[in-house]
Amino acid sequence: MSAAEISMKPPNTTLSPYTLVVEQTALKEVTKRSTDSVSDSQYWRYDVSQKRHKSGAGEGNKLCFKFIYSGSCPRGEKCNFQHDSDAREQYSGGVCIDFLIKGKCERGPDCNFKHDLQNEGESHSRTRRRSESDSGNRSKVCWFCLSSPNVESHLIISVGEFYYCALPKGPLVQDHVLVIPIEHAPSTLTLSQQSNSELVKFQNSLKLYYKNRGKEAVLFEWISKRSSHANIQVVPVPSSRAAAVRDICNMAAEKLGFKFVAMKFNNSSDGREWLRKQFDRNYSFFYVELTEGTILSHSVEENENFPAQFGREVLAGLLNMPERADWRNCALGKDEETKMAEEFKKQFEELDPNQ
To answer: How many other CB atoms are there within 10 angstroms of residue 60's CB atom?
Structure first.
């Protein structure tokens, strides 16, 4: 595409966070250091020729969105934008990322973040107060918090004490389900043992539901260090293809340059207890539970290039529907979503552990 076509703004859109337009006057205090830079580009998920670095060699005053948001960048020293540690610290201290990058925020009073730069001492003194209020503020804008005005309540199919089930936006296949903790937590592996018992009941019910329809359940969770609200994706695959899931996962892992840790269990409870021990909060983590009880897990290193949609992409490839790897290609209208959810609730009612 030409530069003009790329920059053309479709109607009814909001400003992209990747639009790296910097107003120098607003960023004068932030961009003190000359740091690394990053180019934010789309690349094939399993191309691992590019390695991440914590610093780059960007020139000019434009800041790298990736570095400010996550502290790292997939383009490393080839990035064309600055990796400004001061801006990263300001963002970690609760300053709006749009304000840092563009010098302004179009959300105005609806934004839950600060629109002024903090002094060095303020960052530490406000940390505790910010952490206490973060959960409440984020739950107001979180798609998965039941108390949030943004929750898609028409997709909910069952609600328990600690977890609820819902159909996803843009399902990969029919009967694709999300199991979501009611608590605003970044991982299901850090929640209480009591809540874990309810989760296992949900999982076992869904497995039986699929088995009655000639399918097997594949469960996976991506736990990013930047995750806000956890969710486990449960995807039914035809029984005839279930045995191939492990092979295609291993093949995709090999292309990315890592190997899964594999362990087989007789029940989900034992498997989750093992996962709790494997999980380190200091790293991102991915695991998938296969149909025969085997769990594949991988702890993602700081500079490792791991696609957030790994699980969905692998299953889309297995089912010969690569065009559905992106959920946005599968989005449905609200009326159709509501109809699907009501139909699923009706069929799942006898197995629903909350009935």
So the answer is: 12
